[in-house]
Amino acid sequence: MQAHSYSYAVASNPVLYENSPLHVLFAGESQTKSGHAVGPKLYDYYLLHFVESGKGIFRTEQHTYRLEKNDFFLIHPGQLVSYTSDEEEPWRYRWSAFTGYLTEQVVQEAGLRVHQPVFHASDHNPIPGYLEQMQLAFYSRKSSSHLSALGYLYLIMGEAGNHLSDWSDPSGADSQIRRTVKQMVQYMSTQYAHPVSIEQMSEGLGYNRAYLSRIFKKETGVSPVTYLLKLRIDKSRQLLRERPELSVEQVAASVGLTDALYFSRQFKRFCGQSPTEYRNKVKQYPQP
Fold first, then answer.
1. Which keywords does this chain's UniProt record carry (predicted)?
2. Average pLDDT over the chain, rounded to an integer
C-alpha cells in the first residue's frame, strides 16, 4: 500500500452570514488518510467537493457513486450522506460550503439536483483553481474576499451547468436547438436598445445567420428580424405611454432605431397608427 501524507486546511469567510441571498461559508483542501470516512450525517448547507486525485465512495439516500480524479459531488442540505476515501488510493479533494435563500435556485440552474449531484469534469478544467483562489481570498481576511468567493462560486456553477446541460435533457439535438433559441431571445431582449443586427447576434453566438434564422422561425413562428423589430415596437409603445416628455425621435433612438422615419413606418405597420397618433389616443383614453 502506498503511503500518503495526510494534510488538511480550511479558511472561513471573514464576512459573517446574515441571511444573505448567497454566501460562501468556507473553503478547504485535504489529502485524506486511507479509508477516511465522513458520516452518515446531515448538513444544513450545501457542500461541494472536487476530487483532484485518488478514489473514494460517495453515498446519498438514493445512490452510491464510486468517484475518482476530476469528479465533482455536491451535498444538498438535509440529505443523509456519507463519503469514504479509498484504502489504497485515498482521495485528495478541495471543497467549499455555501448557503443563502438563493442557493437552491443557483444549484437548480446548474443542473445539480438531488438525483444528479455528481459529474465528471475534463482534464485541465478550472474548478480546482477556482476553489484554491476562493480559499486564498479567505486567508487574506479582507472583507472584499466575500465578493471574490461569490464570483468563484458562480464560475463553478457555470462549469457544472456546462457539463450537465446535455445530460439533463435526453432529447439531444432538439435540446441544443431550444437552448440556442433561448440565447437568441435573451440576446435580443437585452440588446434591443442598441443598433444591433442579426448578423452581429449570429457572430456573437458563433453560428451561421441562415442556420439561426431557420431554427428560430421553426421554434417561434417568426424570423429573428421580425421578432427583434416587434420587440422594439412593443418597448416604444411603453415609452410613448409612460414618458410623454420624450420626442418620437428620442423614443426611436431608445429602442435602437436611429432612423425616426423608418421607426414611424414600422410602428404604423404593427400598430395601425403613427407613434404620435398612438400617444394622443393614450392621452385621450388612458389605459388602466
1. DNA-binding, Transcription, Transcription regulation
2. 89
| Reported pTM | 0.64
CB atoms within 10 A of CB 88: 12
> Is the confidence at residue 170, as pLDDT, over 70?
no
Which pLDDT score, from 0 to 100, does residue 285 have?
65
**Are residues 178 and 63 located together in one domain of the fold?**
no
Coil/strand/helix, residue 169: coil
Do 33 and 62 lie in one domain? The reply is: yes
In this structure, is residue 1 part of a structural domain? no
For residue 23 the three cell numbers come to 454566501
Nearest to 269 by CA among 219, 232, 218, 221: 232
Total Cβ atoms within 10 A of residue 198: 19
**Gap between the Cα atoms of 28 and 132, Å rounded:** 8
Percentage of the chain surpassing pLDDT 70? 93
Q: In terms of domains, do 156 and 183 share one?
A: no
